[in-house]
Write a structure and sequence with these properties.
Elements: H1 4-17, E1 31-36, H2 43-46, E2 54-59, H3 66-82, E3 91-97, H4 102-105, H5 109-116, H6 131-149, E4 153-160, E5 167-176
Parallel strand pairs: 1-2, 1-3, 3-4
Antiparallel strand pairs: 4-5
């Protein structure tokens, strides 16, 4: 188990490298990744990104839920305060992965439906058991939300294979949002 002393020691080594200096609250690459909390799929590592390049939103399954949409709306305010561009031109990537633990939550449909803020009988439409289908579903939800509430940007859907370490483009990059 990693203990507190280990964390403090690792943090001191991190701080000594100075990689944290001069970074902004939102990623410099105008990139956001919506991904899973699974420790195997940290978007920075999986996608070869450096500290400060990406804004990551992580939840169980990496799903585009009402909470994620609220977070995106809040980030437009943060962006306006810090960059003035309200996330215009931001590339949002939805990244699901193989062997996801969200499949285990399917055994608790009331919990899962609550997270999506939908009735239990609508869960089939969320494609919980298939990461390729679920990315397509979530990219569609995101596109619709961006069209109505967010500035223009790009949306892409990826699936990360935990066995091979490779990503596959499932929903090619599309421009969406308000112009």
């Amino acid at each position: 188990m990693i203990n507190t002393e280990d964390l403090v020691t690792r943090n001191a080594a991190f701080a000594a490298r100075g990689a944290h200096e001069g970074l902004h609250i939102l990623g410099s690459g105008q990139l956001m990744v919506i991904g899973c909390v699974d420790s195997r799929v940290d978007p920075s590592h999986v996608l070869g990104l450096d500290l400060g390049e990406v804004t990551a939103i992580r939840n169980v399954g990496g799903r585009v839920t009402p909470a994620v949409l609220r977070t995106l709306t809040m980030l437009t305010k943060v962006s306006a305060a810090h960059r003035g561009d309200r996330l215009a031109g931001t590339h949002i990537v939805v990244m699901h992965h193989t062997e996801c633990g969200i499949k285990d939550i399917a055994a608790f449909p009331e919990m899962l439906a609550s997270d999506f803020d939908i009735p239990v009988d609508a869960l089939d439409g969320k494609a919980v058991m298939d990461p390729f289908a679920s990315v397509r579903v979530d990219v569609g939800v995101l596109k619709e939300a961006l069209k109505a509430r967010m500035p223009a940007g790009l949306v892409t859907g990826l699936v990360y294979d935990v066995e091979t370490g490779l990503v596959e483009v499932v929903a090619p990059t599309a421009r969406v949002g308000q112009e």
